[in-house]
Each structure stands twice: as structure tokens, then as C-alpha cells.
Amino acid sequence: AEFGPAIVIFICFIMTPLIDISAIPVRYFIAQGVLSETAQKLSLAESRTEAAEIASGGSWKGLLDKCGVQVHAKPLKLVVCGKSESDKITLEPGEAVPVAYLPNGSKSPCVYSMELTVDADIPPLYHGTSGLPGFTSPITMKLSSRSNWENLSRDPATRKYFINE
């Protein structure tokens, strides 16, 4: 007779919250994996304009939405690292890479990386609109992924580097 109420309390107050919050790490790893794959796709684009179009496209956001993760993407950035540690610059979309940082520039060889950053709302399995983050409402995390830019060639027609187009 004493065992029944103990099982009910155990299931309601211990097991159900543990199962509820166990979805957060799974959704986090799914979001990080999708973000890493998207950053890799961005770095394989022919030009930065094409990479920005891929980043603003909804295919990867739709996949995360199906997994229960809401993302709010920030602008795609290009991070350029020169020879020394002080030669690091971050460029917003539309900004051209300075001549000194191009592959034949004075600060080369440089490493070019596409950085995708999002704010992700990762909810537990059963969630509401307000309450304790992680138990009844989503946890907001800043996720970021970076991948090295692959195309360092020039456009044959304009002779401009694809990284500046």
C-alpha cells in the first residue's frame, strides 16, 4: 500500500522532468551538426554572394525547425587571419577584402574562414511559453561554426578574386 504512492511521486517528480530535459542535449547536438554542415557548404560556394544566399536560404533552418530548434541567424561573416596574430579582421557581408589581405597581398598567406553564428532556442521535450528555462521553456544559446574558404581563385572575366564577389 505504501509502494503505490511512492512510485507515483517518483514518476511524476523525478522521471518525467529527467526525460523532459534529456531532449535538450540531443537537440543541441543536432543543431550544432546542422550548423557545421551548413558552414562547410558555405565555404565551398563559388563566391561570397552565393554563400550569403545559401545562408539566408531556409533549407537548413527548416530542418532545425522540424527538430524543434528555432534559430535566429546573424549575418554571415568572413574572418581573415594574416601572418601574425594582430593581422585578424572580420568582414561583414558586402565588405571587400582589403588588397593587403588578398592571396597575393602583403599580409599573405592568409586563412579565410566563413563564420555562421545563430541564436538558437532549444526547448525541452514538453515545453510551454514561459517558466523555468530548460524545464518548461526553451534555453537560448549562441551557436557558431566556422569553415575555411576553399575558392581562392579569380574570376576569368573580371580578374577579381571570387572571395570579393
What overall form do the CA principal axes indicate? Answer: elongated
- The stretches of 5 or more residues where confidence is low (pLDDT under 50) are none
- Work out the number of β strands: 5
What's the total helix number?
4
Question: What proportion of the residues is helical, as a percent range?
Answer: 25-40%
% residues in beta strands: 15-25%
N-to-C CA distance: 75 Å
Nearest-angstrom radius of gyration?
A: 22 Å
Order of helices and strands: HHHHEEEEE
- Helix/sheet category: alpha+beta
User: Kindly state the mean pLDDT as a whole number?
Assistant: 86
The largest sheet, given as strand count, sense and whether it forms a barrel, is:
5 strands, antiparallel
Task: Kindly describe this structure.
With 165 residues, the chain is α+β, with helices and mostly antiparallel strands. Helices cover 35% and strands 21% of the residues. It has helices spanning 3-21, 23-43, 48-56, 59-66, and strands spanning 70-73, 77-81, 88-91, 111-122, 139-148. Strands 1, 2, 3, 4 and 5 form a five-stranded antiparallel beta sheet that branches. A hairpin with a 6-residue loop joins strand 2 and strand 3. The chain starts with a helix and ends in a 17-residue tail after the last strand.
Summarize the structure.
About 35% of the residues lie in helices and about 20% in strands.
Salient structural properties:
165 residues, alpha+beta, 4 helices, 35% helix, elongated
SSE layout and pairings?
Elements (H helix, E strand, L loop, with lengths): L2 H19 L1 H21 L4 H9 L2 H8 L3 E4 L3 E5 L6 E4 L19 E12 L16 E10 L17
Helix pairs in contact: 2-3
